[in-house]
Specification:
Elements lengths: L4 H19 L4 E4 L4 H5 L6 E4 L2 E5 L5 E10 L4 H20 L5 E10 L6
Helix pairs in contact: 1-3
Length: 117
């Protein structure tokens, strides 16, 4: 099976940028696993999944990003998702020079925090 090394490096770079953006976002506790339904299902040939991030190239060669996260209890999820979308778009544009056609934020759970705090 032939692999496209240039494409693989690009996707790894994109994953690194997105993961950094997510890790710096106040209210996000950690990346979540991509659900088994998506990971184990039939993926398009232009799909890359790793570390709670799914990248898909659509029919018109646009990039669509799905980010799976867990958040702190009490956080305003719609506001967090909006801010995270803007931050990811900005960071990717600044570091790679491209825009993403869609960024979907999936909140997979809420962490209650440590009761001993």
């Amino acid at each position: 099976m032939k692999t496209d090394t240039k494409k693989d490096v690009f996707e790894e770079s994109l994953i690194t940028i997105v993961a950094k953006s997510v890790s710096e976002m106040k209210g996000v506790t950690k990346m979540a696993d991509v659900p088994d339904v998506i990971r184990g299902g039939i993926l398009a040939r232009d799909t890359f999944v790793r570390d709670g991030i799914k990248i898909v190239r659509d029919k018109t060669d646009n990039l669509v990003l799905d980010v799976y996260i867990r958040v702190e209890y009490g956080i305003k999820i719609p506001q967090l998702a909006w801010e995270l979308q803007r931050r990811i778009q900005s960071d990717v544009k600044k570091d790679v020079g491209i825009g993403l056609s869609d960024i979907n934020i999936h909140v997979e759970g809420v962490d209650m925090g440590d009761e001993n705090d």
